[in-house]
Amino acid sequence: MSYRAQRVSTDRKQAFTLVELLVVIAIIGVLVSLLLPAVQQAREAARRMQCSNNCKQLGLAFHNYHDTFRSFPFSWNFTTDMNASSWGTQLLPFMEQGNLADRIDPKVPSFNEAASMGFPSASVTSNLAAIATPVEMFMCPSATEAETHEYKIPQGAMASGIPPMDLTWKASRSDYIVTSGVFGDFSTLAYSGVGQSDRSGALTNTGYGAASKASRMADILDGTSNTFLVGERLGGSNVYKKRQIDPTLTSQLGSTQGGAWADVLNGEHWVAGSLYDGSYTSSGGPCPINCSNMRSHGFFSFHPGGAEFLMGDGSVQFVSSNVSAHTFASQITAKNGEVIANN
What is the rounded distance in angstroms from the CA atom of residue 43 to the CA atom of residue 62? Predict the structure, then answer.
């Protein structure tokens, strides 16, 4: 056999056959399929840790505010001159956002309609630009929404005839919202046979027909370690049914979701629950976590199995979606003397 023939024969023996290549590709595909879920879980664990850290930082801001003013901020404030602020706006100077807070004139409403109401247009423009500024601490990295959305307070939403017109604005979202209290079907389910009369949360509000005194730590009779201040709820103007956007509810109610850190409606979130498939009913339902993100119906995260909650003492708890109605309601309400050892 010649040298050339021997070399060709040797080269053929060293080459891969088509079957061998397919086997190798199949093995690689199996390994990738096994590895991908682990990578995704690791990434979600990191995102959830960052979300928990956001809540801890908010807790520090709440406590620094309390140290300064001897009370917590109002959950929302709506004054007779049409100005409005949320707990998020009030916390800005205490979460290293003093420069952003300085751009907001508290005497001028942050609505598109404010200039036509006689307020200085330059201040209105500055306010609108400020509230549209994304603040990382208000956004959970697991959430999938855009940073800014369109919002409004409809005419007469706060009280009879107030506001006298629709108020609209564009603002950066907040994935955290107050825990105002429980009501509706979820409240009935939670307190069936118990009969607790006070079903309100830790933070009070002020404005038309509302309280005039901000709450203090001493007012949380259940204990700050047993009571939520805020919880995780996907912000923005999209209404979700489980993990899918509900286009009908988004069109009807999305702009009133209270989904921004500067939105006064972010300070009003009485939990009535939803159905387990995320469906909306006006009276609520038995599911309070990860079924619907609709304001005054539920808390909602993209973490599997539950959502993060900031306690009154500044600690953070991950609350399971399977938490019992009474346990969850007891951690929202603040004045019933309910002490919960475990979720």
Answer: 29
